[in-house]
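Data deposition worksheet. Section B asks for the primary sequence of the deposited chain exactly as it was used as input, without tags or linkers unless they were present during the calculation. Section C holds the resulting structure in token form. Section D is free text for depositor observations; keep each observation to a single sentence. Incomplete worksheets are returned to the depositor.
Section A, Depositor: J.P.
Section B:
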Amino acid sequence: MRYLVTGAAGFIGYFTAKALLERGHDVVGIDNLNDYYDVGLKQARLADIGNHDHFHFRRIDLADRAAMETLFADLPPQRVIHLAAQAGVRYSIENPHAYVDSNLVGMLHILEGCRHHGVEHLVFASSSSVYGSNTKMPFTVSDPVDHPVSLYAATKKANELMAHTYAHLYRIPVTGLRFFTVYGPWGRPDMALFKFTKAILADQPIDIYNNGKHARDFTYIDDIVEGVVRTADRLPQPNPDWDAAAPDPASSSAPYRLYNIGNSNPVELMEMIAALERALGREAKKNFLPMQPGDVLATYADVEQLKQDVGFQPSTPIETGIERFVSWYRQHYGASA
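Section C:
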């Protein structure tokens, strides 16, 4: 089967493409290789899978309508896993236009490609950030998500609305996955674990926002990818019990579903830092700072529906995941203990 994986040079995209290739599928990967973070890391990910006979990479910007139309026409996929996006909550405050181009215009081009080329299933990345100001824990996909606190979150909520529209109008089976703080080897340098590791090894202080009073549902990359691939294999069906008088946001009379995908076990930021210190064998110099604009206090995923529907079962403890990340980091960057 041919899959299109967008963001194939990105963290989750790289691992997803690799998993599909290992399962014998044909994978078309696209990425614009932008410089939001180290392009060399993106190129190294691609180099790891670039020689596979069934991997076809194209450097394409999602916002380039002509290039996207040509891609779908030349290499029409049966399934699409759309993971490309302009990432980062704080960066969306500095450069909002990048988020509109990639996350909104790019999503439209994906939906149009699926519409015109008979794609049998579109799986796309949403985010836990859509829960915004919500405080009821754990977050469930049936909760209202009408109060985002960053433009990044707003674009992800918009993606869900756009996807539902195409599922309704054109009966395209669409599944959205709200990711919760993914971490692991080959991770993103703008994420806390990566930044903390780099700073601690350089004997520099780490910035800890909100005085460390954050909690995140850290989810290891292997668990995430297993869930993504299982989801892609399960085509969503219209919910026969969907009630327009009391609409469930997570399903529809159209072939549309939303799921949380996370560890369902939030970890305090200071606990994560302690695990990192143990893995590195060093104590961090800590610089405590106030909460940053766009941040949320905690994330906690209710993943029961994904467990029931696809057998999703995260199994990697935070200590194990951090140890694996540190081992990869030292090997990749040659960092000394």
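Section D:
The CA atoms of residues 184 and 221 lie 6 Å apart.
The longest strand covers residues 121-127.
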